[in-house]
């Protein structure tokens, strides 16, 4: 019994002990898993919160006792210590990172990326977090030098300082101390002043140094020497100048290699074929040359290949079809020629193909229809011909198709209407023909961007009540037949923002209700130029469009006064109303359009004075008021238009002194047209301060004085080189400059950059033609006719080697026509009539083709072809013959003299040595002498 009692007691005690242990263990686990954060760490976080501006309330959860439950905070479940602070993208602002963070002694993960620390410096105390393995300060607006003490973070594996362009590093040495570092991103950090380029840790697998201003000869630095673990490398946008970096080839395990947007040159080495792990290769935007190597197309693991914007040439190899894993292929902006290889159809995984801006020709292979995953196809700006293959319709996933600016022709397949995923369709600049009907758009419900042009051979023929399945945001149907009626289906497009229907055969009145609604609500750009459109209510529109930046209505039948509501469209940058029937005065309120860069009302009937308020448009670079009825003076406020490139006030009734400020105040001026006004005074020397001027037309005014000799300093005309007139404006059909340099009106648009012209005709300019004018070797047109110029035509006229048109007629020029005029091999129009020129007309070269006698009419002392022969010509020919005979005599006597001398010497020697010959010779001479004497003087010898 005692034994049983003892056993029971032991059992009860054991059970109690087990229960106690179990409860205790459970309490310990519970304490570990539900441990609240440390109080001083919580207070440190609250101090940090209070030092920051939290406009998005992302830290609203930072309340209560348990900071481990707060947003972005993670704690060690056993100790309750804060080990992770992740505030990525929290939208916080502040001018410092509060040092209260130092209480988070066990922090291993810190992410403050995508916030705004208002150009504060990275605090040095971050280097005290010995357990830190992850540090991300990217895109948070830090400034100044990166602290070298970050090199003390011996546990760091991930460091991202990307996207802080105001950061810089002056000493790269501290990075070599981070022996465990695996991921390093310094993109945007300025390394241009750095030194101590010690080798980076060999542990790095991902290295990103985009736009770091690396030294051009970075290859010679040891920084990349030990990167034996490298898997991903991005050195793009550093403008490095060297051949392909050979050290990269020693890292055969690299999977991602991005060297784009540098200035690498030469050829890609054959040994690149050893980099068999490559999945991404981006060499775009460099200066690489040569052919696509077979070694490149041997990299069969590639999923992304970009060699765009280089100078590769030759054919696209058939081996490109071996890269069957490719999802993205970009060969654009090179010099590839030949046809697209059919093997491209093997790239079954391809989602993006870009072949644009090369010299590819031939037809599009039907194998392209096998690219079942293709969503984007770009082959614009090539020389492709033929029609679109029916296999195009198999590209059921296609979203974007750019094939504009080729030589494609034929009709568009009706099955186009089955490409239900198409969003952007750009087909303009080809020779399409036939009819576009509803069938071509049947299932295109996602279409938002439509651009087609082809000339009059392509007609859009849809029923008047057609309602398209799509809602367009952008429509470009220029230079094809859409009219004659304004398309009703366009009125169903409620999302339209961009309308380009220039030269589309529309002859109609715009529906007022639609125009006002779309015009006021959504429209950003509209170009209806070169049609026969009218809208009588345009001047009565009252509500101002919101966001309109381009309005081009040139070459239509718009009439009435200037639409006053446009003065309230503050966003307007381009306004073209040329070649219409507008009347009245331009309002002063135009000065409100301070964003305006292009303003053109050429060929209307506007009158009154030019509003001085136009001088407020300080961004204006194209101002064309040509051929209206403006009178008065040129506003002095135009001096404020310092960005002006084109100023055309020609064919008005302006009465003013020639504006002396055009040179000094308008330094960018290239095209100045003031012809056909009543301007007077001298041409100011300040005009020579316009180094870019290439078209100067002051004809038909009352200008006096001399031609400034400083014209020889007009740099653009010396070099004959020009930049693009107005970038971003060439797509508008209304852009043009009218010049009358050849006696009739010429309109220049895309060829304007090649026009270098001076026209001072029909004024009262006196003096001589300055020799300095002959320095303008780029000059194409020169018209000084109808003035009072005197003196001679400069001998250096032949130096104007590009001259095509020269008119010096109706002046008082005298002397001979310089022979150097015949050196002008491009001269096609010449007029020297009605001067006092004399002498013979030069001949030879291009002058032989200018056979019109009127070229030289009114110069009574001129002769020679094509006028009458010169009187001195015959004498000159005779003298030439005499000279020829004289030359022949000289050669004759020169030839016989040595022989005569040798013969005479031999005869005399014979008489000296042979006595009988000597006696006989002198006896004969004496007998002959006596006979001659008797014959001449008979009386003297009579006996």
TrEMBL record:
The record's annotation in InterPro entries points to: Leu-rich_rpt, Leu-rich_rpt_typical-subtyp, LRR_dom_sf, LRR_N_plant-typ, LRR_R13L4/SHOC2-like, RLP23-like
Matching SUPFAM superfamilies: L domain-like (SSF52058), RNI-like (SSF52047)
Record bears the keyword Ion transport? no
State its location(s). Answer: Cell membrane
Q: Amino-acid biosynthesis among the record's keywords?
A: no
The UniProt record lists the Leucine-rich repeat-containing N-terminal plant-type domain at: 39-76
**GO CC annotations?**
plasma membrane
What are its GO biological-process terms?
defense response; response to other organism
Please provide the record's keywords in A-Z order: Cell membrane, Glycoprotein, Leucine-rich repeat, Membrane, Repeat, Signal, Transmembrane, Transmembrane helix
Predominant location category: membrane
User: Which residues are in the Disease resistance R13L4/SHOC-2-like LRR domain?
Assistant: 339-493
Record-given protein name:
Leucine-rich repeat-containing N-terminal plant-type domain-containing protein
- Please name the source species: Daucus carota subsp. sativus
């Amino acid at each position: 019994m005692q034994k049983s009692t003892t056993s029971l007691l032991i059992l009860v005690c054991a059970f109690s002990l087990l229960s106690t242990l179990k409860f205790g263990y459970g309490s310990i686990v519970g304490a570990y898993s539900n441990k609240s954060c440390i109080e001083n760490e919580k207070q440190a976080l609250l101090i940090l919160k209070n030092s920051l501006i939290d406009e998005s309330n992302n830290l609203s959860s930072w309340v209560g006792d348990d900071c481990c439950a707060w947003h972005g905070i993670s704690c060690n479940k056993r100790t309750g210590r804060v080990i992770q602070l992740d505030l990525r993208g929290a939208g916080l602002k502040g001018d410092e990172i509060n040092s209260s963070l130092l209480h988070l002694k066990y922090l291993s993960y810190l992410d403050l990326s995508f916030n705004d620390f208002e150009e504060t410096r990275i605090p040095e105390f971050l280097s005290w977090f010995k357990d830190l393995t992850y540090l991300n300060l990217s895109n948070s607006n830090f400034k100044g030098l990166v602290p070298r003490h970050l090199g003390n973070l011996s546990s760091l594996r991930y460091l991202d300082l990307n996207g802080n362009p105001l950061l810089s590093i002056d000493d790269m040495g501290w990075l070599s101390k981070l022996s465990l570092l695996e991921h390093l991103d310094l993109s945007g950090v300025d390394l241009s002043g750095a030194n101590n380029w010690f080798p980076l840790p060999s542990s790095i697998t991902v290295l990103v140094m985009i736009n770091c201003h690396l030294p051009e000869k970075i290859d010679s630095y040891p920084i990349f020497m030990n990167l034996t673990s490298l898997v991903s490398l991005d050195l793009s946008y550093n403008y490095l100048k060297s051949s392909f970096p050979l050290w990269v080839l020693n890292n055969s395990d690299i999977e991602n290699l991005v060297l784009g947007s540098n200035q690498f040159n030469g050829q890609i080495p054959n040994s690149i074929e050893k980099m068999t792990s490559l999945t991404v290769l981006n060499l775009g935007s460099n200066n690489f040359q040569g052919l696509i190597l077979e070694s490149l197309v041997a990299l069969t693991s590639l999923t992304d290949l970009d060699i765009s914007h280089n100078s590769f040439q030759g054919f696209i190899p058939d081996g490109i079809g071996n890269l069957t894993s490719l999802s993205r292929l970009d060969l654009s902006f090179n010099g590839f020629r030949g046809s697209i290889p059919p093997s491209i159809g093997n790239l079954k995984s391809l989602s993006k193909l870009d072949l644009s801006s090369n010299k590819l020709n031939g037809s599009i292979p039907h194998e392209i229809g096998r690219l079942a995953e293709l969503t984007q196809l770009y082959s614009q700006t090539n020389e492709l011909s033929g029609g679109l293959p029916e296999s195009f319709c198999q590209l059921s996933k296609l979203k974007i198709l750019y094939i504009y600016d080729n030589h494609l022709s034929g009709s568009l397949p009706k099955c186009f209407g089955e490409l239900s995923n198409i969003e952007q369709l750009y087909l303009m600049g080809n020779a399409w023909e036939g009819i576009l009907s509803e069938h071509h758009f049947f299932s295109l419900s996602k279409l938002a961007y439509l651009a087609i042009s082809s000339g009059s051979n392509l007609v859009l023929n849809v029923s008047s009540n057609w309602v398209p399945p799509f809602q367009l945001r952008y429509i470009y149907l220029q230079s094809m037949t859409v009219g004659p009626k304004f398309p009703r289906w366009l009125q169903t497009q409620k999302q339209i923002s961009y309308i380009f229907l220039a030269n589309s055969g529309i002859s109609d009145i715009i529906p007022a209700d639609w125009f006002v609604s779309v015009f006021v609500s959504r429209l950003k750009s509209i170009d209806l130029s070169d049609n026969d459109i009218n809208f009588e209510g345009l001047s009565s529109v009252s509500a101002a469009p919101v966001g309109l930046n381009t309005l081009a209505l040139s070459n239509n039948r718009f009439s009435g006064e200037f639409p006053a509501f446009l003065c309230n469209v503050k966003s307007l940058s381009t306004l073209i109303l040329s070649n219409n029937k507008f009347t009245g005065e331009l309002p002063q309120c135009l000065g409100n359009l301070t964003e305006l860069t292009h303003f053109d009302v050429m060929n209307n009937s506007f009158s009154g004075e030019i509003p001085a308020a136009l001088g407020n448009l300080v961004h204006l670079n194209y101002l064309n008021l040509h051929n209206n009825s403006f009178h008065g003076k040129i506003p002095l406020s135009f001096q404020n238009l310092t960005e002006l490139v084109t100023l055309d006030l020609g064919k008005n009734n302006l009465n003013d002194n020639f504006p002396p400020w055009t040179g000094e105040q308008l330094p960018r001026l290239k095209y100045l047209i003031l012809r056909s006004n009543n301007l007077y005074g001298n041409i100011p020397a300040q005009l020579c301060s316009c180094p870019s001027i290439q078209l100067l037309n002051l004809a038909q005014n009352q200008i006096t004085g001399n031609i400034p000799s400083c014209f020889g300093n007009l740099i653009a005309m010396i070099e004959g080189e020009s930049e693009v007139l107005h970038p971003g404006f060439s797509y508008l059909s209304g852009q043009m400059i009218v010049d009358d340099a050849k006696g009739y009106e010429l309109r220049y648009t895309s060829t304007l950059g090649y026009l270098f012209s001076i026209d001072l005709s029909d004024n009262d300019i006196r003096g001589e033609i300055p020799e300095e004018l002959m320095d303008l070797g780029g000059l194409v047109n020169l018209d000084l006719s109808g003035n009072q110029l005197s003196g001679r035509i400069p001998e250096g006229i032949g130096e104007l080697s590009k001259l095509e048109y020269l008119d010096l007629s109706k002046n008082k020029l005298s002397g001979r026509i310089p022979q150097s005029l015949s050196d002008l091999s491009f001269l096609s129009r010449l007029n020297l009539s009605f001067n006092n020129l004399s002498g013979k007309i030069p001949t030879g070269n291009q002058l032989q083709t200018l056979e019109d006698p009127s070229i030289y009419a009114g110069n009574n002392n001129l002769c020679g072809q094509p006028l009458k022969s010169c009187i001195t010509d015959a004498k000159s020919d005779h003298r030439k013959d005499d000279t020829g005979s004289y030359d022949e005599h000289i050669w004759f006597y020169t030839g016989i003299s040595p022989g005569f001398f040798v013969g005479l010497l031999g005869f005399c020697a014979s008489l000296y040595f042979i006595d009988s010959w000597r006696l006989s010779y002198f006896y004969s001479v004496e007998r002959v002498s006596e006979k001659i004497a008797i014959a001449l003087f008979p009386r003297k010898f009579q006996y």
